[in-house]
Amino acid sequence: MSTVLISGAGIAGPTLAYWLARHGFRVTVVERGGEPRSSGNPVDVRGPAVPVAQQMGVMPRLRRAATGTTGVSFVDAAGRRAGRMDMRAVQRPDEVEVPRGDLASILYEASRDHAEFLFDDSITALGQDGHGVDVTFERAAPRRFDLVIGADGLHSVTRRLTFGQEEGTSQSGLVRHMGLYVATTPLADGAAGAGRDIIMHNTPGKAIAVNPRPAGAFFLYRSPAAPEFDHHDTEQHKRMLIDAFKDVSWRAPELLEQVRAADDLYFDSVSQVRLPRWSKGRVALLGDAASCVSLFGDGSTLAMVGAFTLAEALAAHSGDPVAAFRRYEAAHRRLVDPKQRNVAQASALLVPATRGGILARNLATRLWPAMAAATRLKHALAG
């Protein structure tokens, strides 16, 4: 029985823990937070992630947790609708959108009886040889594992310790700022309105929205990388966000007051991770740590599928982790690479850079039913 340490208990980590345990591995998961993160934007479980969730037996719970969001309505400063996209038209019947916190919680509950979880802790050092990896933790005693998997997100400690030091917002050129910053914060029940659409208002280079379920505010704005940005500094995040949206109307003043008082604010750069390889020796990376596709690329779906692919590869090559990691990477890159190429299109849709771009986007939504029908047909033909 091989011992595996997974760093990160978000989406990829618990999914991998579940499947590795099913294959007979002894799994430990270490997570910096005191518990799985409970907030975040809604995410999709779609395409190849659906059978993974079905085999884990979690699809009924995911369907009960579904947001029920029907579309995105784009509004002007007075709140009048200027365009709309019906998201139901492009979602296959077996796919589901759920709050990110609910997805993380459901995956954790599916895996917690099959793995050891160490919360409120993190890796501080890794030392590997041909037979294993010596791991030092912030709190727990040092231990040795056969393998270590970094599923610890965009700002991965495992990646830094294995592939190099971070330099500001770029880790030796491996993390690419995509020219945007994103923030989310929960809202009180009812503050987002009673409808089932996401309501979004744009000004050039900026988008602000409210989600009906879970009730929350969403901010997205164009900006070059801030050299002083510290992804741990919540007070800095509030200052950056308030400064970026201080001149925006619609509901921005009210929502920025919520930001000032927020205990739970997520703020980060929209970035991609581009690595020439996802493993070194007995350490490999998974999910956003290996290949963050940015805000627009089905990250949760890819995390679940990548975890399943990695577990299958390790089971098939249990005595040869190098071969297993090579097999996993070759298979999963075929899904990741096209998603990483779609960022420019998605950002132009959500946060046009000019007033003309906003107008063109709103006018284009009039063609949305025809575009959605074509996408649905494509899905049907693909089976």
UniProtKB/TrEMBL annotation:
The keyword Oxidoreductase applies. Signal peptide: none annotated. It holds the Pfam family FAD_binding_3. Keywords: Monooxygenase, Oxidoreductase. GO terms for molecular function: monooxygenase activity. Residues 3-317 form the FAD-binding domain. The keyword Magnesium does not apply. Gene3D superfamilies: D-Amino Acid Oxidase, subunit A, domain 2 (3.30.9.10), FAD/NAD(P)-binding domain (3.50.50.60). It comes from the Bacteria. This is FAD-dependent monooxygenase.
